[in-house]
Every structure is written in C-alpha cells, then in structure tokens.
C-alpha cells in the first residue's frame, strides 16, 4: 500500500472528509482533529499496513506511522478541506472539554514549528561542541555564521508562531506574519531604547522586547482572528481586499503593543522563570515525577503542554531543563522494548519490537510505546521506574539542553556542554533499569496467531484433523506460479521485504493461475480471494499473496477454485486471476510466496532460476536433525 492509498484508507476509517476539522503531524504521528470520535473505526485503522498504533485524545485522533508520517501527511492534506470548513458550526469545540481544547490548540500551534526548533537546537549543540574542544575560534567568520544560523529560529520565533497560530485560529497567515514583523522591527526596538514613553494616537505603548517571545504573538493572532471575521462581515465585498488587511493592521498592532504584548511577556517570563526556580530548588523531585509520568502523558497527548515552557526557556534563557528528563524516559522506553525483543518467542512480534527498539534508541519512541510496552502493559511499569530514576539523576545535576529534539542518540548534540557526562549517565541508568526490570517483571507474550500483519478475522480455517501441527519432515515447495523470480528483499512492501511474515520468495506472474505447490490442505481462503494459506502434510505453512495491496480489489478479478479445509494434490488449480485487469486497476502483480512457519526450519534454500514455471522447484526447507 503506497502513501496515497494509505492516506485514503485513514481518511475513510476516520469518518471521511466531513469528520476532519484539522490536520497536523509531529515526528511520528498524524494528528487529526475530528468532529465525532464515534465515526472512527479504531480497530480497522490499527490493521492497516504501516500503522503502528492508534490513539484518541479528546477529539484528536493520532495515527502512529513512524518514519512514514511526513509522506502520508502530505498525501492526506489534499484529500480534505484544510480550511477546516467541513465541520458543522460549533460542533468541534462544543464536544471538547477545556483541557482537550487547550492541548489541541497547543499542538496545532507548536507542532508545525518543531522541525525548525530541532534544527536550530542541534546546530547550537554542535557549536558548543566546537567551542568546548577549541576547534573553532569565537572570533572567526565560521563561528559567527554558525551562531546566526542557530540563533535565527529562536530570535524570529514570533514569525514562526504567527504563521502556525494563524493556521490554527483560521486567520490570514501573511497578515499575522506582518504583525510579527512589527513586533521585532529594528525601528520599533530603537524607539523603545531611545524613549522613556511612547504612545500611538494617545494610546500608551509599553516598553517590551518581543524578539524570541512566545505568548505575545499567539495572543495577538488570536485577537486578530476575531478582528478579521468582524471586518469581513461588515465591509462590502468590493472593498474587502483593500480595507480588511489595512484595518486589521491598524487595529491589531496597537492592541498588541499596548495590552496583549505586555501581558504575554510578563506571563511568559513568569512561567519560564518560575519553572527554572522550582527546578533548581527541587530538581531531583521534578526529574523523578516527570520521568515517571512522561510515557503516560504521551499516551494522553498531554506532553505537548510542556512545549511552550521549553520554547520560552530556550528563547529567553538559552537553555532548557525538561529535555533531559524526557530523554531519560525515552532511554527507559528503549531498554524495555529491547528486553521484549530478546525475550519474545513470537517471530513477527520480535521483528516489530526490534524495529521499535532501534527507533527508541535513536529517539523516536511512539512505535515502542504504542506497539510494544503499552500493548504488553507490564513493560510500561519498567519504563516508568527507569524514567523516574534516570530523571531524578538528571534533575540532581540540572542537565541542560541547548535546544529541543529527541534522544538519547539523536539528542546528543543538544547536551554537549558542562553537564554532558550527567546526560550520558542518566540515559544509561534509565536504559539499563528499563531493560532489567522488563526481564524481571516479565510480560504475557503475544500469541503467534495475534501478531501477524494480515487480518484473518474474515477467514474460516477448517483444516482436516489429519493435517499435522508440527514440522515432521523436509519440505520441497514447487512453484505455484509461472513467471519471473523476484528476491523477497526487492518486493515493494516492507511487511514482505523485511520478512516480517517469514522467509520466502516472490514471483512476477505471466500466467494468471496459482496451483498447489505440494500435497496438503487449504488452511484459509481470504474473503477477497487475493491470498490463500496452505498447509502441507509434512507441516509446512505457506502463504501465497497475489499482488500487493490487492485486498482493495475486494475479490474483483480473482476466482477461487478451492475453499477452506479442502485437500489438494500438487499441481491442482487453486486460484485464477486477471493480470491485465489488476495492473489496469493500478496494483502491482508481484506475488510473495512465504513460509510463515519458517523459524521451524534449520535452513531454507531458494531457487537460483531467473524464470520459473509452475511445478518447478521453488524452495527447499530442511528441518533440524
């Protein structure tokens, strides 16, 4: 399933275009604000390829996609009315409680700017590293350029926030950016420096510095959204293009400079400084509490509430203290997930856990959280304890970060500085505790039947009792299809190419028939007839999946000649399919042939033929002697 197809399926299972009021994404999640959560088909969403998990927080649907989130988001946006006029008036806000509305608003404003903050923060970390080891002189042009590169996103953060706030509050983003430009205009800064008192048409203008500020522009754009709507309602259509932007600037800018700006500055400084003072006094306690609760906050989507505080701290004071506590929790998540990987007996789930653990070591923890630890429940206890102890250590030494990002590995440049060694120790402590406690506490392993990628809930397995349940002999598998042999790692579907379903090979058919590759019985015929599960009398379990994503054809262009439970002989006709029509419908015809219980074989040998005919030797499985 490609990105466009996945986006369409997510939209359909989320209630359709009319149910979507806003679309954003973060590092791993597609975030959809929905009008009615009852329209969401959660289990069907979870069953989609590449979907690692689904989470609903208030009226926001979060689809965890890992590294595919950017591509799927880009494919999703054109499918919906991004001006958010799909929702019924008042419906979206009316069904949300105050906390959900607040968190949803924060996510909508801050999530889009995070990439810029991450890039700038990592660059700041690199500069600190270069300075620490005296690899660059602070007087050199190189250092000065790098300093500008890393500082621009923070200095001009009102501009970034103006654009994202306008998208969230449904205001003109370019007028919002223009207002942000007013707040940081050099002439305004000079006027405030040169004069003790300023006024605009008799309105006193308070002295304040808006470079690197956060709240003033957010409050300003929120106010601007109402001004725009009011002006649009009363100004004649022929004059709107001229008068709406003119009057918006003349009304909003003075109100921000006189009222909202000072309020936002005072509030923002108080929040940032208040947290720093509290953290400096009670760092161990703060680290333990936040480290322990962070995974649960992520599950509920409440972790976005810390973003404004982090941005304010970085912009105002140049450092952030929360990042280290989050990384401690992420490290525990990586350790616990890796422990699951080493202990699970389920081959498919082991592949999932291994990939999730690797992502968690880098710093992307949603696949581990939603796909492994929260799913198994007990490992989440280990994550919480590991995060608490590592967070307490980081809090005791007031570990500083030069920016926002993730970790442990990806966040290393953020922590290069005087407290770097404590960052490393805190991460190791959390990781080791998460790993060891998961092994000690244990977990209920995922049954083999429940870990597969393919949903067999609509199939009827009626295998005769005489079919063996264990491998009892070597297995020779004849080719079920005539065509061109394709190595499995070249199949354009990670489920197959990464061998999540098992070892095997693929065939590019040139004859639209599937014949039996051995003597045995049909375990299942998929309702859509695009795939069939077989079992030999010697215990080999084989999946033949005709084409990629062909389940979407809903049986069209396929014809089954057998049913579940039916016995067959090698060479018997099982399925027929129309190659031309399937290709015309836009689907790849490459057919994976997978030994789903391949872990039971000591070795599996594939054919070395480039072209193969039905009935030729395709694979040979050898059992352990």
Automatic annotation (TrEMBL):
PROSITE patterns membership: PTS_EIIA_TYPE_1, PTS_EIIA_TYPE_1_HIS, PTS_EIIB_TYPE_1, PTS_EIIB_TYPE_1_CYS, PTS_EIIC_TYPE_1
PANTHER family: PHOSPHOTRANSFERASE SYSTEM TRANSPORT PROTEIN, PTS SYSTEM ARBUTIN-, CELLOBIOSE-, AND SALICIN-SPECIFIC EIIBC COMPONENT-RELATED
Stretches assigned to the PTS EIIB type-1 domain: 4-86
Domain PTS EIIC type-1, chain residue ranges per copy: 104-457
Locations listed in the record: Cell membrane
Name of protein: Beta-1,6-galactofuranosyltransferase
Annotated signal peptide: none
Source organism superkingdom: Bacteria
PTS EIIA type-1 domain boundaries: 493-597
Kinase as UniProt keyword: yes
Membrane topology: Multi-pass membrane protein
NCBIfam families per record: PTBA, PTS-II-ABC-beta
Pfam family, one: PTS_EIIA_1
Membrane spanning residue stretches: 105-132, 152-169, 174-192, 198-226, 238-259, 279-300, 321-341, 353-373, 380-399, 419-441
Alphabetical UniProt keywords: Cell membrane, Kinase, Membrane, Phosphotransferase system, Sugar transport, Transferase, Transmembrane, Transmembrane helix, Transport
Active-site residues, as the UniProt record annotates them: 26
tRNA processing keyword on record: no
InterPro entries: Dup_hybrid_motif, Glu_permease_IIB, PTrfase_EIIB_Cys, PTS_EIIA_1_perm, PTS_EIIC, PTS_EIIC_1, PTS_IIABC_b_glu, PTS_IIB_1
């Amino acid at each position: 399933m490609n990105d466009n197809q996945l986006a369409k399926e997510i939209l359909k299972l989320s209630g359709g275009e009319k149910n979507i009021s806003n679309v954003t994404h973060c590092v791993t999640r597609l975030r959809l604000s929905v009008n009615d959560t009852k329209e969401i088909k959660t289990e069907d969403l979870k069953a989609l390829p590449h979907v690692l998990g689904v989470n609903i927080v208030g009226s926001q649907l979060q689809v965890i996609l890992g590294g595919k989130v950017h591509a799927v988001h880009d494919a999703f946006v054109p499918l919906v009315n991004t001006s958010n006029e799909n929702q019924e008036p008042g419906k979206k806000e009316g069904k949300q409680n105050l906390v959900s509305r607040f968190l949803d608003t924060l996510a909508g404003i801050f999530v889009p700017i995070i990439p810029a903050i991450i890039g700038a923060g990592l660059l700041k970390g690199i500069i600190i590293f270069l300075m620490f080891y005296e690899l660059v002189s602070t007087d050199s042009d190189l250092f000065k350029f790098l300093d500008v590169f890393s500082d621009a996103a923070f200095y001009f953060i009102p501009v970034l926030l103006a654009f994202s706030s306008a998208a969230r509050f449904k205001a003109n983003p370019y007028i919002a950016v223009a207002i942000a430009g007013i707040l940081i205009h050099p002439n305004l800064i000079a006027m405030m420096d040169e004069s003790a008192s300023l006024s605009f048409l008799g309105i006193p203008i308070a002295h304040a510095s808006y470079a690197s500020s956060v709240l003033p522009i957010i409050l300003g754009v929120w106010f601007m959204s109402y001004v725009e709507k009011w002006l649009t309602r009363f100004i004649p259509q022929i004059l709107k293009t001229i008068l709406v932007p003119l009057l918006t600037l003349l009304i909003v800018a003075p109100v921000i400079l006189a009222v909202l700006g000072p309020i936002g500055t005072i509030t923002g400084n108080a929040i940032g400084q208040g947290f720093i003072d509290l953290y400096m006094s009670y760092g161990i306690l703060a680290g333990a509490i936040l480290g322990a609760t962070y995974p649960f906050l992520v599950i509920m989507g409440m972790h976005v509430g810390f973003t404004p505080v982090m941005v304010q701290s970085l912009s105002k004071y140049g450092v952030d203290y929360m990042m280290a506590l989050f990384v401690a929790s992420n490290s525990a998540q990586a350790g616990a997930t890796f422990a699951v990987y080493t202990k699970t007996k389920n081959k498919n789930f082991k592949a999932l856990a291994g990939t999730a653990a690797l992502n968690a070591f880098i710093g992307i923890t949603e696949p581990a959280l939603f796909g492994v630890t929260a799913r198994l429940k007990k490992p989440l206890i280990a994550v919480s304890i590991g995060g608490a102890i590592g967070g307490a250590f980081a809090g005791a030494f007031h570990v500083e970060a030069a920016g926002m990002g993730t970790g442990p590995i990806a966040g290393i440049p953020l922590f290069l500085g005087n407290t770097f060694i404590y960052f490393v120790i805190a991460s190791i402590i959390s990781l080791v505790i998460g790993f060891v406690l998961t092994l000690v506490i244990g977990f209920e392993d995922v049954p083999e039947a429940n870990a597969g990628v393919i949903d067999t809930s609509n199939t009827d397995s009626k295998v005769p009792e005489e079919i063996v349940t264990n491998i009892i002999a070597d297995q020779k598998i004849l080719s079920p299809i005539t065509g061109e042999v394709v190595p499995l790692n070249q199949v354009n579907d990670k489920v197959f190419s990464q061998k999540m379903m098992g070892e095997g090979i693929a065939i590019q058919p040139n004859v639209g028939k599937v014949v039996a590759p051995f003597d045995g019985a049909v375990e299942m015929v998929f309702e859509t007839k695009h795939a069939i599960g077989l079992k030999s009398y010697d215990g080999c379990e084989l999946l033949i999946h005709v084409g990629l994503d062909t389940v979407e054809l809903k049986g069209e262009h396929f014809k089954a000649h057998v049913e579940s439970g039916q016995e067959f002989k090698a060479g018997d006709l099982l399925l027929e399919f129309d190659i031309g029509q399937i290709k015309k419908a836009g689907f790849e015809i490459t057919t994976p042939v997978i030994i789903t219980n391949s872990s039971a074989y000591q070795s599996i040998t594939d054919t070395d033929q480039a072209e193969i005919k039905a009935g030729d030797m395709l694979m040979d499985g050898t059992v352990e002697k």
